[in-house]
């Protein structure tokens, strides 16, 4: 096993001190804030000690099989809200109605897995009834930002020949704009119904993209590509991402809820999205 340690604020000396807990045979410097520790010892007590020390130093620790690289994969599938982008779009849309605190509380509970996602989305969308659809463009223009390292990761992923999928419990209004902007191959999200007056009806058209649908989407795209889901990397942050992460060959929790971090192969708590490329370099 290898251990990759990296953190935007962590210096090499600090990372090497953490590495010593796993007794590596070799340490390779990967930059000013990242190292790869080769042929490390792994046991529950060692892993826990490394994780605790890394977290205290605001660094991310990843134990991974030696030799794993982007060449092992054919697809990168990503959640959108709070993963590829920094915001929860529905919360920002609700802010246009003066309802952000109420909607954001429901979103947070759903992401922790405390509420059924489909029911919570139906409830939140209903609160948006009557909002001018132009408010969505304002959210896109004024508030939507790509997460740190997102564009760099996609450039690396696409350069390595992997396909990309953005699968979201959010809305097509945003995925359809991000697709050409970032050169994404596939997108799938919920469709907000708009009435003839150009206002949101408070309903979603068609089926809701919940945890099951996210998983099915990853499976469908892999089938289209002619590969098994073990060839997919899946990134997410909320409980509704767990099922698609569960069928992946490699799962990545980004700034994720505790329930997601606990089940992911890789947890990025401090680094940007491009830290994945460092791990699989």
UniProtKB/TrEMBL annotation:
Its EC number is 3.1.3.3. Pathway: Amino-acid biosynthesis; L-serine biosynthesis; L-serine from 3-phospho-D-glycerate: step 3/3. The keyword Ligase does not apply. It catalyses: O-phospho-D-serine + H2O = D-serine + phosphate; O-phospho-L-serine + H2O = L-serine + phosphate. GO terms for molecular function: hydrolase activity. It comes from the Bacteria. InterPro entries: HAD-like_SerB (IPR050582), HAD-like_sf (IPR036412), HAD_sf (IPR023214), PSP (IPR004469). Its cofactor is Mg(2+). Keywords: Amino-acid biosynthesis, Hydrolase, Magnesium, Metal-binding, Serine biosynthesis. Belongs to the HAD-like hydrolase superfamily. SerB family. This is Phosphoserine phosphatase.
């Amino acid at each position: 096993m290898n251990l990759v340690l990296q953190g935007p604020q962590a210096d090499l000396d600090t990372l090497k001190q953490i590495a010593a807990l796993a007794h590596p045979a070799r340490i390779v410097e990967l930059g000013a804030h990242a190292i790869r520790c080769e042929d490390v010892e792994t046991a529950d007590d060692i892993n826990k000690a490394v994780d605790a020390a890394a977290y205290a130093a605001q660094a991310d620790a990843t134990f991974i099989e030696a030799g794993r690289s982007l060449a092992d994969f054919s697809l990168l599938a990503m959640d959108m809200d709070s993963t590829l982008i920094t915001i929860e779009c529905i919360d920002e849309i609700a802010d246009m109605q003066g309802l952000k605190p109420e909607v954001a509380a429901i979103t947070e509970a759903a992401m922790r897995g405390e509420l059924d996602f489909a029911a919570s989305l139906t409830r939140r969308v209903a609160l948006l009834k009557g909002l001018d659809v132009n408010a969505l463009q304002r959210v896109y223009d004024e508030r939507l930002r790509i997460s740190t390292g997102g564009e760099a990761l996609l450039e690396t992923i696409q350069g390595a020949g992997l396909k990309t999928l953005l699968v979201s419990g959010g809305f097509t209004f945003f995925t359809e704009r991000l697709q050409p902007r970032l050169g994404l191959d596939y997108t799938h999200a919920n469709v907000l119904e708009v009435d003839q007056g150009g206002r949101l009806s408070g309903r979603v058209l068609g089926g809701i993209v919940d945890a099951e649908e996210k998983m099915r989407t990853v499976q469908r795209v892999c089938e289209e590509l002619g590969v098994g889901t073990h060839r997919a990397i899946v990134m997410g942050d909320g409980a509704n991402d767990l099922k698609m992460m569960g069928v992946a060959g490699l799962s990545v929790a980004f700034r994720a809820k505790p329930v997601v971090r606990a089940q992911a192969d890789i947890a990025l708590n401090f680094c940007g999205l491009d830290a994945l490329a460092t791990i699989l370099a």
